[in-house]
Amino acid sequence: MTQADGKTTVVIVGGGVAGLALGTFLLRSGIPCTVLEKNSREYVEQRQRAGSLDGRGVRTLHDWGVGEAVEGHGGGPSDVVLPLIVHGEKRAWRMDSGEDGAGAFVPQQVLVRNLVRIFLRDGGDLRFEAADVTLEKLGTEQPRVRYRDGEGAKAIDCAFVAGADGFHGVSRTAIPDGFLTCHSHEFGYAWLTVMAEVPADPLAVMAVHARGFAAQITRGPDASRIYLQCPVDDTAGDWPDERVWDELGTRLAAPVPRGPIATKQVVPLRGVVFSPMRYGRLCLLGDAAHLISPMSAEGMSLALHDAEVLAHALVHQVAKDDPSLLESYSDTCLAHVWERQASAVWMTDAMHDSGDASYRGEFRKQVALANLENLVQPRSA
Q1: 3-state secondary structure at position 326
Q2: pLDDT, tens digit, for every residue of 149-182?
Q3: Range of the domain at 288
Q4: What is the count of structural domains for the chain?
Q5: 354: buried, middle or exposed (CB in 10 Å: 19+, 13-18, 0-12)?
Q6: Quick one: angle between helices 329-353 and 361-372, nearest 10?
């Protein structure tokens, strides 16, 4: 038997950056909401994820009074120089804060941990380990969200549902077949991503090499994430530990400290956009609506942008009975998403085509190397 669980204005499915940011913005606007997260609090606060916010993302958090979520993780473009090894030559990224100000390097789990703390401190309703979530009556004025927890089956009636449960979540699959259009771009290569129990020194270094792109980025004082460009049909089994360390040292053109490797995974690089981002009373945001090349490091920034646009739209609808922002939510977000996808494709091509010429040829390699000069400081610097 399903246990009645009351009503709220907005049910947010997913307790990642997009969902928690939206919940925090709504709560601070006086809009009741409930966040459902399928995993435990311990899991979401400790899972290792890359993290970077652009200047607009940092400004968004400050505008909503939650700048503390990134405090202590400033590391913005204005105060750190990241090395880029281009075919064995050490270069440095061109540092430009841009009109939105400096960004911040903050691991995703740290940002999530801080947003959880802020949301709960503000009195937010956050329910972990909410399993078997299903969305019903999305085309009506009173959707219902069902889920199961340790007490049994429950249901929440609401006015709106926000689907922030990631690319493999249930929210997007609740939309009828044929309604969404999926646009995708496959880059044709993958990254071997490796979590190693070795500190990164420097904290982040990237390399362009004839054997492919490489990077090592800190994940704390005793761990780092390694990225190695590889064919899309490679498997983790093709990369024994010794090969990982040998290849990293070769591409970085320097000896690298070695240590235990915890995990390995091959991730094909791609961009995906679903359109529209709204169906009835359901709005998609974050990875549930789009994926962007990890080379751009813009996933969290896009999630925050979606959350802010949707928060303003829901406030106008609920508090002012003005549906105009909600009706334009999808178009507003998609215009920004496509702008960032264009930048991500350019960046990804520049960083990968300028190294391994076997994928797109020597002509494109030389074009990419010329483009790369726009991203790095002049040699005289």
Answers
A1: helix
A2: 999 999 999 999 999 999 999 999 999 999 999 9
A3: 3-79+102-182+271-345
A4: 1
A5: buried
A6: 110
